[in-house]
């Protein structure tokens, strides 16, 4: 028996070189992604599109069903970002993988959208400054997804879509003027790789030296950890022919041991001193509930004429992280509301939010959504019910069907779960009757618990808790993420003393 065991082990060792790459341990540089890769912003920010204008950088992302949509971020150093405008203040359907570009000093956003009937189209908005104001959307009356604005050597404008087809644009960029021209087919993915699907999308073109470099996302944006990727091709004309890189893919998660899963959808930017960087998105291993986060890696142009991921540490500083986020630090959003101003009023000087309640639970009333990328965080606020039938609470919100949280009305404390409301006796009956309680909710690596207080000093724990690690796109679909949120229903509610604590930064 022992001889047979040793023989079996020897056979496995000899076969090791034939094990597929994705099953092998990745190189040490990949396992140490904290040296090569920086996470930007907070929360789910998928499908980044970035430009440099002078010495400043501007970036947008998919906003899907959140309102307001298309937040334009600005940065001086590529790592510290702040919002400079809102391009879509009103709900305009689901927004997938938009493209931010500048042409003759005018800024454009090309955005694919789906209406309530799931019909796809592409629209365009524009502004004379990234700070806005932005125009109303104009429908280009063309389907597909992931538009990319490109110009040829003569400055003629085109819209490149996910099928690899170029669509001629008018000089002002607001109309399709001709038939599509097919320029690129997907890079052939090896059959043995675990992917979500071929899914050619997110095509991005950057001219470096004598070549145009094309970067395309393939493999599906979620699914297995090894699914998504960025492939590279080059040509001396945007019309092709395009030569695929011999070492494709340029970027891919090769092992489930890596920190970042399903890496893909690259957008390329250069710096004034000539460095090149690729922004992309990925899920964090073990924290898919946080959605697809924006990451950045450095690129170098090799002697072989191809772009490669820079080895070793990235030449950028670490971004600053807030330990505590207050009301005025956030870009607040709602879920499929027409406009955030319809129900929510903000009073920055008074540290106050006034909410017109909607529905009788978070399923019926779109909450006010914050964002974080912390593995461990707390949300705390003081709630005052201004109407007899009002209720309010703190929620971890994925969508109208999947949400988990804690609240109160004038009679009881409440638990919210998937449209259901459970009730229990309050240990502060007088405070409940007066309609004023402090609430605190903690997400400790997917375990939700909460406390309530009459004065914000002495706290009692709710008799319920949740485990929510399965609340992510691979299980629930929708390309969303779990967000800390404020819910109000049944009447008007005043919220003060809001704070979101990043417990990861406080250890």
UniProtKB/TrEMBL annotation:
The active site is at 47 (proton acceptor), 201 (proton donor). Residues 330-469 form the Beta-xylosidase C-terminal Concanavalin A-like domain. One of its GO terms (molecular function) is xylan 1,4-beta-xylosidase activity. Gene3D superfamilies: 2.60.120.200, Glycosyl hydrolase domain, family 43 (2.115.10.20). Pfam families: GH43_C2, Glyco_hydro_43. CDD domains: GH43_XYL-like. Its EC number is 3.2.1.37. Residues 1-23 form the signal peptide. The record marks 146 as: Important for catalytic activity, responsible for pKa modulation of the active site Glu and correct orientation of both the proton donor and substrate. Keywords: Glycosidase, Hydrolase, Signal. It is an enzyme of class 3 (hydrolase). One of its GO terms (biological process) is carbohydrate metabolic process. Belongs to the glycosyl hydrolase 43 family. This is Xylan 1,4-beta-xylosidase. It comes from Phocaeicola salanitronis (strain DSM 18170 / JCM 13657 / CCUG 60908 / BL78) (Bacteroides salanitronis). The lineage of its organism: Bacteria, Pseudomonadati, Bacteroidota, Bacteroidia, Bacteroidales.
């Amino acid at each position: 028996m022992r001889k047979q065991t040793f023989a079996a082990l020897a056979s496995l060792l000899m076969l090791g070189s034939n094990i597929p790459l994705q099953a092998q341990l990745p190189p040490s540089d990949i396992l140490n992604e904290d040296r090569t890769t920086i996470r930007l912003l907070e929360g789910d920010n998928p499908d980044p599109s970035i430009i440099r204008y002078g010495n400043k950088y501007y970036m947008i992302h998919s906003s899907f069903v959140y309102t307001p949509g298309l937040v334009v971020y600005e940065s001086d150093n590529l790592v510290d970002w702040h919002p400079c405008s809102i391009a879509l203040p009103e709900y305009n359907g689901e927004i997938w993988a938009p493209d931010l570009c500048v042409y003759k000093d005018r800024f454009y956003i090309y955005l694919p959208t789906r209406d309530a009937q799931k019909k796809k189209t592409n629209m365009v908005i524009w502004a004379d400054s990234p700070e806005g104001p932005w125009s109303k959307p104009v429908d280009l009356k063309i389907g597909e997804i992931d538009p990319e604005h490109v110009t040829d050597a003569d400055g003629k404008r085109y819209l490149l879509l996910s099928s690899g087809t170029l669509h001629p644009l008018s000089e002002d960029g607001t109309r399709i003027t001709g038939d599509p021209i097919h320029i690129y087919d997907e890079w052939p993915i090896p059959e043995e790789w675990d992917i979500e699907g071929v899914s050619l999308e997110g095509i991005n073109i950057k001219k470096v030296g004598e070549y145009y470099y094309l970067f395309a996302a393939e493999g599906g944006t979620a699914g297995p950890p090894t699914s998504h990727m960025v492939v590279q091709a080059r040509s001396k004309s945007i019309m092709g022919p395009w030569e695929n890189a011999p070492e494709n893919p340029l970027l891919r998660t090769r092992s489930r041991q890596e920190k970042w899963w399903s890496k893909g959808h690259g957008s390329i930017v250069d710096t004034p001193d000539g460095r090149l960087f690729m922004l992309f998105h990925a899920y964090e291993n073990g924290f898919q509930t946080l959605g697809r986060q924006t990451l950045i890696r450095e690129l170098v142009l090799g002697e072989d004429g191809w772009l490669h991921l820079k080895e070793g540490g990235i030449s950028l500083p670490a971004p600053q992280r807030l330990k505590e986020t207050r009301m005025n630090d956030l870009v607040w959003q709602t879920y499929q509301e027409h406009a955030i101003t319809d129900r929510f009023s903000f009073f920055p000087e008074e540290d106050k939010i006034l909410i017109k309640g909607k529905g009788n639970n978070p399923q019926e009333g779109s909450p006010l959504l914050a964002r974080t990328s912390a593995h461990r965080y707390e949300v705390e606020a003081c709630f005052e019910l201004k109407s007899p039938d009002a209720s309010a609470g703190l929620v971890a919100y994925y969508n109208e069907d999947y949400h988990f949280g804690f609240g109160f009305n004038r009679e009881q404390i409440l638990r919210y779960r998937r449209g259901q409301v459970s009730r229990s006796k309050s240990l502060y009956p007088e405070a409940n009757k007066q309609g004023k309680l402090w609430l605190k909710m903690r997400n400790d690596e997917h375990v939700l618990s909460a406390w309530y207080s009459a004065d914000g000093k002495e706290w009692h724990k709710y008799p319920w808790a949740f485990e929510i690690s399965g609340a992510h796109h691979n299980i629930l679909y929708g390309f969303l993420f779990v967000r800390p949120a404020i819910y109000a229903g049944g009447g008007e509610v005043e919220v003060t003393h809001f704070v979101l604590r990043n417990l990861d930064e406080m250890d």
